[in-house]
Amino acid sequence: MAKPQPRTLTVLARQQVSPSMIRLTLGGEGLADFPHGQEGGYVKLMFPPAPGKAKPTLRTYTIRAQRAGEIDVDFALHGVENGVSGPATNWAVSTEIGSTIEVGGPGAAKPLPEGFDFYLVAGDMTAIPAISVNLEALDREAKGYAVIEIQQEDDRVEIDAPDGVEIRWVVNPEPGQQPQWLVEALRAYGWPEGRVYAWAASEFSAMRLMRTYLREEKALTPAELYISSYWKQGLDEESHKVVKREDAEATAA
Q: How far apart, in whole angstroms, are the C-alpha atoms of residue 151 and residue 153?
């Protein structure tokens, strides 16, 4: 199938979800034929081409919520204070209500499947929107453990998870550093009984450590595990995509 044409969406509202996360509500006429039920899926935000490039600069973001005529997109504010943030973060903190942006997608969500006895979930701030959608969609009797890395204590957000899902927040003021913290938190919890499904998304180095634990040590199969890197310290999305593809090819060999 051909990819849908980009849509021109308007910034309708903004909200400071936490000190390190901004939520922008996008909508307008360009969203008129947008498919329903896309929470947890993703869109591609299109920014001006980088110097020397012809194509737009793309950045991928999760759809945190969808309502009639609008979607919410959350932006983790990495690198703003020291001036090394990327085009999406720079745009999110400076854009005004009424401004427009070209958006591609949506892309498919990666939900937590039904029928498992226990759910292990892990991710950093870039994964909070997807984690939130997934936990809120679980059966209310579901059991699980989620470990979420945030930049400061006040970055905790409300997640309507089932009562049987414990959420642990790990504070890391320097995202991309200390990649072992997420997997250490999973190991410290111990391995639950019954059929386990694991979902993890984070910075590249943290993802690889969790993959070793979940896929190699605990022998979870593709039907029992979703794991992905959403970004890599020191690389833009285009360079990260190359490293991600090379890593996938190496692990499949």
A: 7
- Give the span between the Cα atoms of 28 and 25, in whole angstroms: 10
pLDDT > 90? residue 135: yes
**Residue 206: is its pLDDT beyond 80?**
yes
Q: What is the pLDDT of residue 50?
A: 86
Tokens describing residue 117: 């006895």
Q: Given strand 225-231, what is the order of strands in its sheet?
A: 164-171, 143-150, 118-123, 196-203, 225-231
Whole-angstrom Cα distance, residue 27 to residue 177? 35
CA 149 distance to own-chain centroid? 12
Look up residue 104 and give its amino acid. Answer: G
| Residue 35 Ramachandran class (φ > 0 left, ψ -120 to 50 alpha, else beta) | beta
CB 33 within 8 Å of CB 8 = no
Average pLDDT over residues 188-209: 98
Asked if 112 and 127 count as a contact pair (C-beta separation under 8 A), the reply is no
How would residue 80 be classed by pLDDT, with cut points 50, 70 and 90?
A: low
